[in-house]
Amino acid sequence: MPEARGFFPPNLELRKKNEAAREFNRKKYENMNKFRAEQNYAQLAEEKNEIIDQEKVAIEKSFESLRQNNYEKYFEKLDTLSFGLTGKGYIERIVILEKAIERGCVNWKKLQELFEKTSDNGTKLAIVSALPKLQLENREDKKQVFEFLKNIAVKCEGFKESDKIDLDMTIAWGSSQKTKEDHRLLEESGSGEGCECEGDFFVPKAIRTIAKMGEGWEDELLSIWIRLEEKTSYEKDYMKNEEDDSYGFNIELDPRGNIAKFYDKDYADSNYWDKRLILELLAQKVSKKGINFFLEQIRNDSEITYVYQDEINELLKSDRKQSIEGIIKILQSENLDESSVFRLLTTATDVCGELLVRDAIHTTILKKKLNGDLEAVRNIERASSFITPNGDKIAIRNLQEFYQTKIKFEDYKVNELMNKKEVALLESLIGKDEKVLEMGCGAGRLISELAKSGHDISGYDYTERHVQITKENLEKNKLSAKVFQGDWHNNALKDESFDVVYSLGRNILHDYSILSQAELFKEAVRILKPGGQFIFDIPNRTKGNYHELVEGYAEEMKKRGIQNFRYGSIYDSPDGKNFATRYAYSPEDIEQLAQLSGFEIVEVKKEKLETGKDDENLYFILKKKK
Asked: 129 by DSSP, 3-state: which?
């Protein structure tokens, strides 16, 4: 049996956790449910990670210490180098090889020769670990190195299968450094002299080394993935309970016996661990090629997208912009079946959230329309209908255009019925000598009333028609107010130029993305004087029609397999025919936005909303902090 001499013993605490994990897996508990399994997994994973962090620190210290040594006597020729590596710990072998490379004593050819001559797996593995230190200016040499590493990754080529050494999470050192206490620990841990340790780490070491090799590493890792995929067998992985003939959930262990993943999918991949490592490395290094490769896998309904859903999502999250752009590009393709659209959009929403995906889709539609690419518009609109719970309703694509040409907002009955109460509220809060701004004045229902009372008031709306109607009404009634076209994202108002800013009629619901909402509050802070008031209203989303809208939207999204959506989103209509996505804020949302932007909440008033239903409006009075 090969010796494990020269290797630091595994952490005893970690070994105990491993034994607990094995015992947990063997029993699997009768009628085990997912909640209990995930609880155990989370606890063990947290404890294991703490130990791994400690070991990483110890390993780095070991490297730093060994780099101070002088190994020049081993660099005369290949035989002396081979002799110098014998009996040394794994880390010390790496240090010796790296120094030999830095001194120019060995190149790729000599390392390859040394690898083929030695029968010691520890030395072979150290050679693999030291390869990134090579300066491979010769393209042919680099190609050979990549092929060498790929053969290890796919076939474990060059290593003796029976000689397994647990290296990935232990600190290795030379036998001369051992003390009596070290030998005692080795014996107690079951990893003493001459033992065969668990875990074959040759394949992951080759994969990790490729990721450190610079230019070309992405293509090589994806090449390994394809070759592993060719030899993968997907098998049903149900865990059957013999007593009641029912099926439960399974727990996957990593090669060392740790609980690594709660597993309730239909398929198990025989190369799971090596392929998961490739995905993790692609995510860590934010691989654009990797993102595009796996988006195509999702499009083509590869079984790997089910087995590796979590890991693929982490890769896509490493560059959300690239992922969204890649998905939108595919969605414009011809002959894309509905199941492909479903998979791509559920993946996109899992990674980026439904609001960001919808924004990207709508932006693409506008661009393609401008370019006259009607075929791409048709394809992308099909995707848009999947992510928007509109059914047979007409979606409002451009809100400004809708208010300009398709609806008379001045006839909107709900606001008209609330007018008297809202004017009274504003009159009670605004002083006669204060400068006031209405954000989104619509057809001027409020601005006209405040102008009658002699307030110094201005207002803007982003619809030209509304601005014109408001100006005509003011002129007709010989009232004075400044009215212009603009919105809270685009205007030329000066900093700290108003005492009061208000926006009533549930206007702020139109900004449904978090970023847009934050910009609204920051704009109010910018134009308000210190101590100034920001007054606005939102519906109480826990009551009446708005509660039904919120729950209906959530239910529809879940039906479509979209889990990552913002609760509070609604599909709302000003006329019962044309619908737009809006967001019904919660009081907690307002508290967070106020705190982040520099407001304090002074008061929240409640009023029954005149809809004929159990609807309620919440009026927030905020004050800018001095």
From this structure: helix
CA distances from 543 to 88, 270, 409, 565, 589 (A): 72, 52, 25, 21, 17
3-state secondary structure of 365: helix
What are 144-173's pLDDT values in tens digits? 989 988 888 887 766 655 444 433 333 333
User: What 3-state class would DSSP assign to 235?
Assistant: strand
Question: Do residues 436 and 499 make contact, with C-beta atoms less than 8 angstroms apart?
Answer: yes
Q: Which amino acid would we find at residue 392? A: D
Residue 159 vs residues 105, 115, 118, 408, 411: alpha-carbon distances, Å: 25, 10, 10, 78, 81
Distance CA 201, CA 205 (A): 6
Report the distance separating Cα 407 and Cα 425, nearest Å. 28
234-236 and 240-241 strand pairing: unpaired
Structural domains in the chain, sorted by start? 12-214 (no CATH), 230-398 (no CATH), 405-624 (3.40.50.150)
pLDDT of residue 197: 31
Burial class (CB in 10 A: 0-12, 13-18, 19+), 435: middle
In angstroms, rounded to a whole number, what is the distance separating the alpha carbons of residues 388 and 580?
9
Within its chain, how far is the Cα of 280 from the centroid? 13
Question: Comparing C-alpha atoms, which of 16, 365, 310 is closest to residue 190?
Answer: 16
**Nearest to residue 262, comparing CAs of 41, 48, 43?**
41
Residue type, 506: R
Could you read off the pLDDT of 363-391 as tens digits, one per residue?
888 788 888 888 888 888 777 777 766 55
